[in-house]
C-alpha cells in the first residue's frame, strides 16, 4: 500500500439520521505521520474503524492504491495491510509472546520467534514476563505488549486510537516518537487520532475532526 484516499465519506449508524462523519475527504501516504485531533464523541474511533475496513461507510468510498476498498477482500486487507490498536489493546488470554505469534498467524507472516522476543524486550518486558499470561501482567506491562505488536508488524498502515489512553502508564511522547521513527524507517503510514495534543510534534500533518468534518490544519516541517 502506498496511498489511501477518502472520497466524500459519510457514516450514519443504523436507526439514526445523524451523521457521525459527513462528506470527509483526505489522502494518507506511506512514509508520513498524520495526527487527527478531536474531542470526545466526535467520530475518531469510527474513522479509524472505517480506515481499517472494520466498518463500511454509508456514503462515499475509500481507495487503496486507486482500488475501491469495498470491492476488495477486506479480510485480506485487514490481515496484510493494517495494524490497528484501539484503546482496549486487542490482546487475547495467553502469554505476551503468544499474542505476537497470533499476530503473525493472522497477518500471514512467518513465525519469527527470535524477532518477536526481541521486540518484547525492546518494549520493556523481561524474559519471564514475555512468557507470562496477559492477565498476570500489570497494566503497564500489557501496554508494552501493545507497543511490541506495532514493532513486529509488516503492515503498511498503522492506526492508533488515542495513545494518551492506549499508553497511559508509559511515557506517551517517548512511545509515539519510537513508533513514528519506526514508521518512517520502514516507509509506513501512521494515523493517530486523539483528544490530546501531547505528541502532535511528531506528525507531518495535523488534522482536526469536529462536527463530522475532517479539516486539514497544517503541515509540519521535519
UniProtKB/TrEMBL annotation:
Transmembrane segments: none annotated. The keyword Lipoprotein does not apply. GO terms for molecular function: ATP binding. It comes from the Bacteria. InterPro entries: AAA+_ATPase, ABC_transporter-like_ATP-bd, ABC_transpr_LolD-like. The keyword tRNA processing does not apply. It holds the Pfam family ABC_tran. Residues 4-217 form the ABC transporter domain. Keywords: ATP-binding, Nucleotide-binding. Belongs to the ABC transporter superfamily. This is ATP-binding cassette domain-containing protein. It comes from Enterococcus alishanensis. The lineage of its organism: Bacteria, Bacillati, Bacillota, Bacilli, Lactobacillales.
Amino acid at each position: 500500500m502506498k496511498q489511501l484516499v477518502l472520497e466524500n465519506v459519510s457514516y450514519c449508524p443504523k436507526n439514526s439520521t445523524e451523521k457521525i462523519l459527513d462528506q470527509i475527504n483526505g489522502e494518507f501516504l506511506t512514509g508520513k505521520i498524520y495526527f487527527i485531533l478531536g474531542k470526545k464523541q466526535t467520530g475518531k474511533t469510527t474513522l479509524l474503524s472505517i480506515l481499517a475496513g472494520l466498518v463500511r461507510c454509508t456514503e462515499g468510498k475509500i481507495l487503496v492504491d486507486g482500488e475501491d476498498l469495498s470491492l476488495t477482500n477486506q479480510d485480506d486487507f485487514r490481515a496484510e495491510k493494517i495494524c490497528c490498536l484501539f484503546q482496549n489493546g486487542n490482546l487475547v488470554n495467553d502469554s505476551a509472546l503468544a499474542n505476537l505469534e497470533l499476530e503473525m498467524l493472522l497477518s500471514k507472516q512467518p513465525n519469527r520467534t527470535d524477532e518477536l522476543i526481541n521486540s518484547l524486550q525492546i518494549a520493556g518486558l523481561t524474559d519471564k514476563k514475555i512468557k507470562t499470561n496477559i492477565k498476570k501482567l500489570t497494566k503497564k506491562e500489557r501496554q508494552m505488549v501493545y507497543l511490541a505488536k506495532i514493532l513486529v508488524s509488516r503492515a503498511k498502515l498503522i492506526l492508533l486510537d488515542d495513545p494518551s489512553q492506549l499508553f497511559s502508564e508509559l511515557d506517551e511522547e517517548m512511545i509515539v516518537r519510537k513508533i513514528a521513527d519506526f514508521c518512517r524507517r520502514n516507509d509506513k503510514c501512521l494515523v493517530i487520532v486523539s483528544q490530546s495534543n501531547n505528541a502532535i510534534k511528531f506528525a507531518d500533518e495535523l488534522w482536526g475532526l469536529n462536527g463530522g468534518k475532517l479539516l486539514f490544519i497544517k503541515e509540519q516541517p521535519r
